[in-house]
Amino acid sequence: MRSWLVQHGAPPGRVWILLGLLGAILNPTLGRGEPAPPRNAAQTLPAETTEEAPTPRPANGTTDATPLLPVMTMPDALRWAIEHNPQLATVRKQRGIAQAGIVIANTYPFNPILQHFVWGANNPPGAGVTNHVFNEHTSRIDVELRGQGKHRRAMAQAALSRTEWEIATQEVLVGILAVRAFDTVLYRQEKLRVQEDLLHLQEEVIKKVEPLAQQGHLPRTELMLAKADLVDARTALGPAHNALVVAWNDLRRQLGMVDENCTLHGSLDSAFPKLPVTELMLEGKQRRPDLHALEVAVKEAEAALRLQIANRFGNPSIGPAGEVNETSVGFVGMWLIWSPPVFNRRQGEIMQRQADVARAAQAAQSLDITIRQEVVAAVNRLASAAKLVETFRTETFPALESAREGFDQLFARGEPGITLARVIAIRHRLIQTRGAYLDALFELSQARADLAAAIGDPSLAFPLPPAPTPAVTPK
């Protein structure tokens, strides 16, 4: 596969990252543990599989039932962004400029200089003029004597390699942003569903409280409070819907879409393996394209330094010369023009190139430290987020579900002090806790994206299939 990519024009410096992205996209085990939709995001599901597909939700954030739309998974979104992001397409054009630099470096930089003098000689006869047309012809060319061409070609090749790594850096960045935007849409969709569930609960409360209040079994204040809660639930639905629209717009921006519609197939509920920090640091040093770009930039600066030292001695201009003077005497010889480094030995320019080498080396060293810092920070954030999610799964939801069942049993037996308002309140708290659980899942997804960015591999943002989740929907 690698040789095929190279033979078909793929930049050698980016072959590994393309293979990594392709492997992550095509590997079904890296998905969300759900049936894989069509690989092309513009392709709808076959007719025989539409019944098993999740209920589609339109891309504009509405919740009305609509016909089945094209389905996109996270790997689909990553591939689509790599292929269609307009900013990334613009960055890729930089490679053409770097390739032109290779052509320039392989071309000899100097052209020959031809110089001709033709003068008329018409002095008195006593001057001995025998040739009335004085001719002088010279030709010369600047010669590189200190290997400047070799240094120039090395610098151009390093610039091309650095450009390829910088393009790969932008590809990884766009991939990470697409993954974040994908998870954000999933998160906003689920938050909207939570607000819809709260609204539905308040509507059911009104249906139950209103007849009881009219019959005198409940005070009128309970009905007034229920109506106020219903107004709050309806009011909160608008901001949740607007946040979903913004998330969709951001995802379309990363994918390079304008007004195309699609549905997302995925879930925030997932697991993530524990990985050794030392191994992650090594992976980051091997995979981060921006680090490789800085390492190549050091070689480019070193080549520029060698070229500056070689140019200090100048390039002599040499070539043949011929002349026929007014007395018909012919001259044949050589021209030599040279500017030796006597008063100006280019020390300032050489010091500048030396500073460029030191700066490039320091930048690579600084990024190496930054990578290790980012890996540690991402692992710590991931561990904290995973711990919070596990707390919800093993402690919070079981405790609330047990409390709900207890309230239901006590209310059914007519236990004093267990009112309908308390039964409703525990269900309201369960739905709100589901919203907090979504916040924890979103934090976990962002921690995964942080780790993927620190390693330079967007596939690390693809979560493993989740563990069984607790039942959080109130009965």
Structure description:
By secondary structure, this protein is α+β, with helices and mostly antiparallel strands. The protein has a single domain (2-108, 155-311, 347-461), classed as Outer membrane efflux proteins (OEP) (Up-down Bundle), CATH 1.20.1600.10. It is 61% helix and 8% strand. It has helices spanning 2-7, 15-26, 74-84, 86-92, 94-106, 148-214, 220-255, 277-287, 289-311, 347-412, 420-455, and strands at residues 71-72, 113-120, 133-142, 263-264, 317-324, 330-337. The strands form two sheets. It has a four-stranded antiparallel beta sheet with strand order 2-3-5-6, with no helix packed on it. A two-stranded parallel sheet has the order 1-4. A hairpin with a 5-residue loop joins strand 5 and strand 6 (330-337). Helix 3 (74-84) crosses helix 6. The longest helix has 67 residues, at 148-214. It is elongated, with a radius of gyration of 37 Å. The two termini are 54 Å apart.
Which key features would you list for this structure?
alpha+beta; four-stranded antiparallel beta sheet; 475 residues; two-stranded parallel sheet; 6 strands
